[in-house]
Amino acid sequence: MTAITDVMPGRAGVYARLAKLDVWDYYLALPLAWSIIGPAAWFQPSVLGMLALFGIGTVFVVASAVTFDDVTGFVDGSDNANYGPDAPARKLARKPLLTGEITVVEAVRFGWCAAALGAVFWALAALVAPFSLMWTVGLATLCLVTAVQYSWGLKISYRGWQEVFLAAFGIGLVLCAVGFATGTVSVFGIVQAVLFGFGPLMFGVYSNTRDAAGDAAVGRPTVAALATENGNRLFIAGLTVAETALIVAAAGLGAAPWWFSLVMLPAIILRVAQLHRGIGLGDLLGARTLGLRVHRLTTALLIAVNLVGAWS
């Protein structure tokens, strides 16, 4: 399937690849949040306007984060180690700094412009939202600051917080959008936000495993770079078990409908298949790709659960 970054012309295409617009998995927080808020608010103009502004802002915030991550990876040499000259052309093209299509100065300028636009659109979303409580505004601010500082400034991903951020940012997006719409989040809404956050984390850990040597060389302390090979395998297996346990516990303890585990079974099976492919067979890139699909399937199933629950 042709990605949007492949069809955009000239410099626009270069910046689209720098912003990683072909990886849209965090953006799925918006339709998930819409399904969580319930039918009473689904079609309120203020809710739809808030979601549209928050969604546009999210694109810019993510673009800023991945741009600064590329700049730091280019400057410290980790991207050159992890995306060497033997990398497939399609994969290498996702790093326009490595291919020489853009300069560091241009990338940094783009990163700050994207961050500023993200802040503006998120502020507008808060202004038109039915509820702009302190906790939602504070959480959105935290998401913005940590995204920009992920590999820049404070460089939190270089301080041992990479895995935490990958999950927490997704969780924060869902909670912010729901909070702006309704002012509160149910226990089941929190469960869904956590399951959504697991998605980026569970394809990120396989990328980190593949990039462990390059990350260790530049002092980026991911779990894969710090732990032994067996320790990292146990970490990934533990995350897989924890995600499944959350699904089962939510249904068993009454936070979710009793049939929730049954609906989520396809995602659970694919998650186990991902573990087998990545850890059992050593196919890390294949496991990462499967993780993307599991995340998208999980989000679709969660939306289906909310839609069915709303009308049952």
UniProtKB/TrEMBL annotation:
Cell compartments where the protein resides: Membrane
Q: Which InterPro entries match?
A: UbiA_prenyltransferase (IPR000537)
What's the chief localization of this chain?
membrane
The Gene Ontology terms for molecular function here are: transferase activity, transferring alkyl or aryl (other than methyl) groups
Membrane protein topology class:
Multi-pass membrane protein
Is Transferase one of the keywords UniProt gives this record? Answer: yes
Q: Name one GO cellular component term.
A: membrane
Taxonomy, superkingdom: Bacteria
Q: Which UniProt keywords apply?
A: Membrane, Transferase, Transmembrane, Transmembrane helix
Per the UniProt record, one Pfam family is UbiA
Membrane-spanning residues where? Answer: 26-43, 50-68, 119-152, 164-181, 187-206, 234-251
Q: Membrane: present as a keyword of the record?
A: yes
Name by which UniProt lists this protein: 1,4-dihydroxy-2-naphthoate octaprenyltransferase
Tell me which species this is from.
Actinokineospora alba
